[in-house]
Amino acid sequence: MHVLVTAVEIHIPAARSLKAKRSTVTSIVRHLDRQHGVAASEVDHLDLWQRARIGVAVVADTVSRTSRVMDGVERYIWSRPDIEVLDVDRSWWDGG
What we know:
Blueprint: E1 2-11, H1 18-36, E2 39-44, E3 51-60, H2 63-79, E4 84-93
Antiparallel strand pairs: 1-3, 1-4, 2-3
């Protein structure tokens, strides 16, 4: 079992309220779940209007498959014109 976890820090310049920010974040998280089959959630900056940290986890049987899925996740996030990616941090988790 191989687990890859990524934290993505984003800025949402057009968000003028928490409701607007959450709409964008929810759209991203739902897409990642439906299209990539990953676990994703907003994990930090919950009370800031224009900032969010999204955690994404991929579990797969091989390292290459795990990496491929996460590459697709990152491509999608980087392709969104309504957000700015501030930081991406990948880490492998070893469950022992």
